[in-house]
Write a structure and sequence with these properties.
It comes from Kribbella italica. Residues 227-447 form the Histidine kinase domain. It holds the Pfam family HisKA. Its EC number is 2.7.13.3. This protein starts with 9 loop residues before the first helix and ends with a strand. By secondary structure, the protein is α+β, with helices and mostly antiparallel strands. It is 54% helix and 15% strand. A hairpin with a 7-residue loop joins strand 10 and strand 11 (438-445). The chain folds into 3 domains: 10-160, no CATH class; 185-286, Helix Hairpins (Orthogonal Bundle), CATH 1.10.287.130; 292-445, Histidine kinase-like ATPase, C-terminal domain (Heat Shock Protein 90).
């Protein structure tokens, strides 16, 4: 299920998101800073007044003169008023306590002249309010400046930050325009953009590889269709010629029987070619096998009997074990029919064909070098001229056949397709005994 992708500008989204975060964070930070500043200022003022009061008590115990005591506890921003028992007022004139004045009162407990005196310390809190107001204005100005600077930096910086995405976009458009081969080639693949760029390059490699394969498949398909049409043209032309000749001949014509045989033969040839093309189509689409227990030697013996009926002077023998495995008997028989027919054509009706059925142990592929699973092998070899090494793979291509034969050139490709559908393979090589001739090796797994 596809869903529409929201494609709003990434630059705008990131810029607005960053500014929104700043709009939220800066006021909160400013409030916290101002609250901490105000609380600390209050504590400092309380500590100052309390400290001055303790100092006054200490000086009184030292019997310091009242005037000297007032001078020593005087401090910036603190008004000191000392009223002796006699009513004499020393220091600043007394003021009334209010919201703008913080006062601390204490009675001195020692000293000949200061015992019982009333000490009043007054602090003007308007200085704190002014400092708090100054801090608030500083925070507002700096916050606004930070927003402006951040917005400008984001607009400029996003161009550089999103340059890799612009490069990806430009490359994608160039690929869409038909210019192949371009890659991003990230310098690092352990970052977000690096991983994205590497994945983008891998996707392009896969797409171009698939495109090349598709073009190659299309070219091969066109070539195959053209060759198949050419192969079908011969029997169809023969059928048409025979049919037209039959129509022109009278009922008592001497050539009528010969033309009827030609018509049947060419029809069979065309039908066989169509059946081969259908088999190839099934193989390409994914052949469905009907597996059941199969005895390979029985199938080989049936092929021997068929060949002896068709060519009594042909020497055919089956050697090997009576192996049983899971396979499609019709497809295996079709493979052996093709191989034995080719061997008969190569060796001649007086030649010799051998069919070897044997179990072959698997090569070392198991744990710690242990042998892999065994497989069955059927070798069909003849004493004909053999197949040149350069042609041993080419003969498995479709519509490739010898000029001396009248085959369609589809038998071996179909046989290999059936073998590989079973999980095995079909190859061509020299005879194992070194004698003249060809050997076709069919491999089928026991699994």
């Amino acid at each position: 299920m596809s869903m529409p992708l929201r494609t709003a500008s990434l630059r705008r989204r990131v810029t607005w998101l960053a500014l929104l975060v700043l709009v939220v964070v800066l006021p909160v930070t400013g409030l916290v800073v101002k609250s901490v500043f105000d609380a600390q200022a209050e504590r400092n003022l309380d500590a100052l007044l309390s400290g001055r009061t303790q100092l006054a008590q200490q000086l009184a115990r030292q019997n310091v003169a009242p005037a000297a005591l007032v001078r020593r506890i005087d401090a910036d921003g603190v008004r000191v008023t000392l009223v002796l028992r006699s009513g004499q007022v020393l220091g600043a004139p007394p003021v009334e306590a209010s919201s703008a004045v913080r006062q601390v009162r204490a009675t001195l407990q020692a000293g000949q002249r200061t015992r019982g005196a009333e000490l009043t310390l007054s602090a003007d809190t308007s200085l704190l309010a002014e400092a708090s107001g100054t801090l608030r204005r500083t925070l507002l100005i700096s916050g606004a400046a930070a927003l402006v600077i951040t917005a400008v930096a984001l607009v400029v910086g996003m161009r550089f930050a999103l340059a890799p995405l612009d490069a990806m976009t430009g490359l994608a458009r160039s690929i869409a325009a038909g210019r192949r081969g371009g890659r991003l080639q990230p310098t690092r693949d352990d970052t977000e953009l690096g991983r994205t760029a590497a994945a983008f390059d891998e996707m392009l490699d896969a797409l171009e590889g698939a495109e090349q394969q598709a073009r190659g498949s299309e070219a091969r398909m066109r070539e195959f269709v053209a060759d198949a049409a050419h192969e079908l043209r011969t029997p169809v032309a023969g059928i048409r010629t025979a049919a037209e000749t039959l129509l022109r001949l009278g009922p008592d014509a001497s050539r009528r029987e010969e033309l009827e045989l030609l018509l049947v033969r060419e029809s069979q040839r065309a039908g066989a070619l169509v059946d081969d093309l259908l088999d190839l189509a099934r193989i390409d689409a994914g052949l469905e096998l009907r597996l059941r227990p199969v005895r390979l030697k029985e199938i080989a013996v049936a092929q021997v009997e068929r060949l002896r009926l068709a060519a009594p002077e042909l020497t055919v023998e089956v050697v090997g074990e009576d192996l049983e495995l899971q396979a499609d008997p019709e497809r295996v028989a079709q493979v052996l029919t093709n191989l034995t027919n080719n061997a008969r054509t190569a060796a001649g009706d007086r030649g010799k064909i051998e069919i070897l059925v044997r179990r072959v142990p698997g090569e070392g592929g198991g744990p710690e070098g242990a042998a892999g699973p065994a497989y069955a092998e059927i070798v069909v070899q003849d004493n004909g001229p053999g197949v040149l090494p350069v042609d041993r793979e080419r003969i498995f291509r479709r519509l490739v056949h010898s000029p001396a034969t009248r085959g369609s050139g589809l038998g071996l490709p179909i046989a290999r397709g059936f073998a590989r559908a079973h999980g095995g393979d079909l190859t061509c090589g020299d005879r194992a005994d070194g004698q003249r001739g060809a050997a076709f090796r069919l491999v089928l797994p026991f699994g």
